[in-house]
Design brief:
- Helices cover about 55% and strands about 5% of the residues.
- It has about 375 residues and is mainly α.
- The chain has one domain (about 5-130, about 150-300).
- Strand 3 and strand 4 (about 330) form a beta hairpin.
- Helix 2 (about 30-50) packs antiparallel against helix 11 (about 210-235), helix 5 packs across helix 9 and helix 11 packs across helix 16 (about 300-310).
- The protein starts with 6 loop residues before the first helix and ends in a 12-residue tail after the last helix.
- The structure holds zinc ion (2 copies).
- The site of one zinc ion has 6 residues, from helix 11 and helix 14.
Length: about 375
């Protein structure tokens, strides 16, 4: 086990080097959200009110999907309190931003801020971490799926990303409801039912065909974009007993214009070090990480990270190795042998490792 440090340990060492303004909220981020909101409303109205050619509706659906995802990235930072500080305004704006995914601010702050950020990649406590082999064996239905060939599983996994966010959000809503005081639950229900009611109401207002373009396809696209980031941000990393963002989080590299559209969401290791500062300043945080701990910092091009997700199973044998349960092949995680520049060279056989014929390599001994 490498020596790991908490996000507070890193933050305490970088903070003195950051200018004071970095710790202030940045309300100007809302202009981007307003643009996405107007585009979304215009798109839904255009599909609903006009009888356009299906090809044109599909094009609008694509723009709507990109706008839905963009709004959620802003919603994420709003609900971290880095855009406005007043709690009621933060929650109100966060509710609007996450409306397309029918995820209320109460649920999101509990699921993401309180649980995921505090327990990142903990094998039991992080709701976003994948299971260990031990946990999988207790779920016979899921373990049967691992008998399928990898190509079928990877196709199924990538297809699932188109509904993953909505599915997990709905499941987390019901799982978390009991953890809220009884007097807060009606508000939680409201935040859950109003968006779902609106989207189902839209179906009756515009009819099935238009609804598919105005909501269903955009929601599938937004689910895929959000889930692809969430998966690449942690699922190639090891599970960690200590919540060390440089070990358990991955920043992905995307073109600059994508960072503009997605509010710098790609800087995920930086985000886990400083969830309370605006992502606008994450390039500066990255500079400091690279100065202080260049050997610990991991980033990967988004395309290569997706390829690595395709080629590896999503079950942990140990904290540092993923495993294909049936042949037993082990796949190293980032920092423990996964080559971030050549993710295609990832497999070695469990039997070979056990027999000492293949040496596990750690590409970042720190
Ligand atoms: Zn995260
Ligand atoms: Zn966050």
């Amino acid at each position: 086990m490498k020596d790991l440090h908490t996000f507070g340990w890193y933050a305490a060492r970088i903070s003195p080097h950051l200018p004071a303004q970095v710790f202030q909220p940045v309300p100007a981020r809302l202009w981007g959200g307003l643009a996405y909101l107007l585009v979304s409303l215009a798109g839904i109205l255009t599909i609903g009110l006009l009888d356009l050619h299906p090809g044109l509706n599909l094009l609008i659906a694509l723009v709507l999907g990109l706008s839905f995802a963009g709004k959620c990235f802003l919603g994420h930072e709003i609900l971290h309190g880095t855009v406005v500080r007043r709690p009621w305004l933060r929650d109100f704006l966060g509710a609007i931003a996450f409306f397309p995914m029918s995820t209320g601010p109460g649920l999101w702050r509990k699921w993401h801020n309180v649980t995921h950020h505090v327990h990142t990649q903990h094998d039991v406590n992080d709701p976003d971490a994948w299971s260990t082999l031990e946990q999988l064996m207790k779920r016979p239905l899921l373990s049967h799926m691992y008998r399928l060939p990898r190509f079928v599983r990877s196709t199924g996994y990538f297809s699932f990303l188109t509904i993953n966010f909505s599915f997990v959000a709905t499941r987390n809503f019901f799982v978390n409801l009991k953890n809220f005081e009884a007097k807060k639950r009606p508000l939680l229900w409201m935040q859950f039912l109003i968006p779902w009611g609106t989207w189902i109401g839209l179906l009756f207002m515009v009819g099935l065909e238009k609804w598919i373009f105005a909501y269903l396809i955009p929601a599938l696209i937004a689910n895929f974009i959000l889930s692809a980031y969430i998966a690449t941000n942690h699922n190639l990393n090891p599970l960690t007993a200590v919540n060390d963002p440089l070990a358990n989080s991955l920043s992905v590299r995307v073109p600059k214009w994508v960072d503009v559209l997605h509010f710098n969401f790609s800087y995920h290791a930086e985000h886990h070090l400083f969830p309370g500062i605006s992502p606008k300043y994450y390039p500066l945080v990255k500079e400091h990480i690279l100065k202080m701990w260049p050997e610990r910092y991991h980033s990967m091009s988004f395309g290569k990270a997706m390829l690595a997700l395709w080629k590896t199973p999503r079950i942990y044998k140990t904290h540092e190795d993923l495993v294909d349960p049936i042949p037993g092949n082990l796949y190293p995680t980032i920092g423990y042998g996964l080559d971030t520049e050549h993710p295609e060279q990832v497999s070695y056989r469990a039997a070979d490792v056990e027999a000492g014929r293949v040496e596990k390599k750690a590409n970042a001994e720190v």
